[in-house]
Write a structure and sequence with these properties.
binds ligand LBFN2T5F, Diaminopimelate Epimerase, Chain A, domain 1, alpha+beta, single chain, 14-stranded mixed beta sheet, five-stranded mixed beta sheet, 318 residues, 7 helices
């Protein structure tokens, strides 16, 4: 090559990396996703391709990518079909960096709305749909103004420390004075919740860098910063504000599993176990978190909120 020739980039364009691919774009309270219908399981989208598509400058942009595939095409889906043969659709979710997560609470609502809009399922208001996920079976109900998801059971990641101290780890965050104690909750995926004492503190947090969590759960964690309303409970409903740094993404406008973890941690700290309805305000809107008696006799968490499709397109060689 002559030295006067411009250097050619070795980085493939999105089109070279992905080829032709129809997609839709949707969000739930500002947590946005690229959605791909793959009923024949022909688009094996690799982690690097997901990262390219989710890139907000060189790609389509999104906090994650969700592929709609039959549960029968993945081992995790086949396991669910053994007990729920009607869980036809599986949410194959990846974070913006291409990593897998067990669960996405905003994603599963947007995923079901996408199935409805693609005419892949019929779902009148009030009806339910079983969905396979890496975090197990989730039952989604269509509401007048969104969807409610039975997220199943939850657990503290370090049960003993949670019961004795209410805290199990420490989190260091840019923009927050002092290292803070935190409580880790599994919603299928891991969360570490930090209590914040005032609005100025919540707004001063700088989430362009990953918070330092010690000890870090085995597969990393999502970190939620939660400010309790004053009073915490009004009209029988608990209320909190939350910001979140998502594993594999960065700061997002909302996180459904994070909202559940925020309500669980706050309820535990306040010993307010009888408060079963919570409102979680996130930068992108409001989510509802409910605690109900599940059909298995255990406490289940129900997440509710909107799901919106905003556009359709096709990744193609122009
Ligand atoms: N935004 C999601 C959670 C997505 C997965 C998360 N980043 C993880 O890695 O666990 C939600 O709405 O729950």
């Amino acid at each position: 090559m002559r030295s006067t020739e411009p250097a050619t980039s070795t980085i493939p364009t999105l089109q070279e990396a992905v080829g032709r691919l129809p997609y839709a774009k949707g969000h739930g309270t500002g947590n946005d996703f690229i959605l791909v219908a793959d009923p024949l399981d022909v688009h094996s989208i690799e982690p690097g391709q997901v990262a390219r598509m989710c890139d907000r400058h060189r790609g389509i942009g999104g906090d994650g990518l969700i592929r709609a595939v039959p549960s029968s095409t993945l081992p995790e889906g086949r396991a669910i079909l053994e007990t729920r043969p009607d869980a036809y659709w599986f949410m194959d979710y990846r974070n913006a960096d291409g990593s897998l997560s067990e669960m996405c609470g905003n994603g599963v609502r947007v995923f079901v709305h996408f199935l409805v809009c693609e005419n892949l399922v019929e779902m009148p208001v009030g009806s339910t749909l079983p969905i396979g996920t890496r975090g197990g079976l989730k039952i989604v109900t269509r509401l007048e103004d969104g969807y409610a998801v039975d997220m199943g059971t939850w657990e503290f990641i370090h049960a003993q420390a949670a019961a004795t101290n209410g805290l199990d780890s420490r989190v260091e965050t840019t923009g927050l004075a002092n290292v803070r104690g935190a409580l880790s909750v599994s919603m299928g995926n891991p969360h570490t919740v930090v209590a914040i004492s005032d609005t100025g503190e919540l707004e001063g947090i700088e989430l362009t860098s990953t918070p330092g969590v010690e000890p870090l759960p085995a597969h990393g964690t999502n970190v939620e910063y939660v400010l309790a309303a004053d009073p915490l409970v009004s009209g029988g409903r608990g209320s909190v504000r939350m910001r979140v740094h998502e594993r594999g993404v960065g700061e997002t406008l909302s996180c459904g599993t994070g909202a559940c973890a925020a309500a669980i941690a706050t309820r535990h700290w306040a010993q307010a176990h009888d408060i079963r309805q919570w409102s979680v305000q996130v930068p992108g809107g409001e989510l509802g978190v409910g605690f109900v008696d599940g059909p298995d006799g255990l406490e289940h968490v129900v997440l509710s909120g909107p799901a919106v499709l905003v556009s359709r397109g096709e990744v193609s060689a122009a």
